[in-house]
Amino acid sequence: GFFNRVTRSLHKAALLTPPQNITILSTNMKHFLIWSPVAEIAPGEVVKYSVEFQGEYERDYANDSWIPIAECTDVSVTQCDITEDISATVPYNLRVRASTGTQASLWATLNGFFNRVTRSLHKAALLTPPQNITILSTNMKHFLIWSPVAEIAPGEVVKYSVEFQGEYERDYANDSWIPIAECTDVSVTQCDITEDISATVPYNLRVRASTGTQASLWATLNGFFNRVT
């Protein structure tokens, strides 16, 4: 047969398997691309990794090109801090490949697009919203109370924040909500709302749970509360 040094190196390249289990880890407002290590072919051979990204601009206007991430080119770790590279709120594509001194694997691409905005929303959904929200009225005082939310990681502190909405906010202030300062990032599962609902109008109240890294969706009181009725 014939020998072709080009096809030979391509043939050889296929021996080094592409990285597997590519995923995104988001923590403390940072985003990391992570993957499983690739086994070296020859003993003592060092496998290195390179990561590239592709944003909307590259896909639509730059001929479907990919941009290398300089600090994640030929690195021996199996993770890459992509926070700075995916700073726009557009869907990104990411890919990684393994290489040794003599050959490179095929590129392995992240399954689906990554968008840092939807990712944080997706992550937020892991922390469940507070349940059993109700009003307890006693001795001319009114408290919003709710059931505690279980932490996701052991030792994680869950805190709660309460907001209210009166007739003015609903009708004239763009349906906005007002945080209750003394019930923002508190670890108790109740909030004295007496001062905040002093007018004789129907109020809406909502509460959410949060940890250092994420927040739940807001949970709203079922129906309006009016201190007179």
Structure summarized in a few sentences:
With about 230 residues, this protein is of the alpha+beta class. Helices cover about 15% and strands about 30% of the residues. It comes from Micrurus surinamensis (Surinam coral snake).
Descriptive report:
This is Fibronectin type-III domain-containing protein. GO terms for molecular function: cytokine receptor activity; interleukin-20 binding. InterPro entries: FN3_dom, FN3_sf, Ig-like_fold, Type-II_Cytokine-TF_Rcpt. One of its GO terms (cellular component) is plasma membrane. The longest helix is centred in the first third of the chain and has 9 residues. The termini are far apart. The chain folds into two domains: 96 residues, Sandwich (Immunoglobulin-like), CATH 2.60.40.10; 96 residues, Immunoglobulins (Immunoglobulin-like). Strand 1 and strand 2 form a beta hairpin. 13% of the residues lie in helices and 31% in strands. Strands 4-3-6-7 form a four-stranded antiparallel sheet. A four-stranded antiparallel sheet has the order 11-10-13-14. Strands 1-2-5 form a three-stranded antiparallel sheet, with helices on one face. By secondary structure, it is an alpha+beta fold.
How far apart are the termini? 94 Å
Question: In percent, how helical is the residue content?
Answer: 10-25%
Order of helices and strands: HEEEHEEEEHEEEHEEEE
* Poorly predicted segments: 9-14, 120-125
Q: How many domain modules?
A: 2
Fourth CATH level, the homologous superfamily of the largest domain: Immunoglobulins
Largest sheet: 4 strands, antiparallel
* Number of helices, where a helix is a run of at least 4 consecutive DSSP H or I residues: 4
Rg computed from alpha carbons, rounded to a whole number of angstroms: 26 Å
CATH class of the largest domain: Mainly Beta
Q: State the total count of DSSP E strands.
A: 14
CATH architecture of the largest domain: Sandwich
β-strand percent reads 25-35%
Average per-residue pLDDT, rounded, comes to 83
Which class of secondary structure composition applies to the elements?
alpha+beta
Strands of the biggest beta sheet: in what spatial order?
4-3-6-7
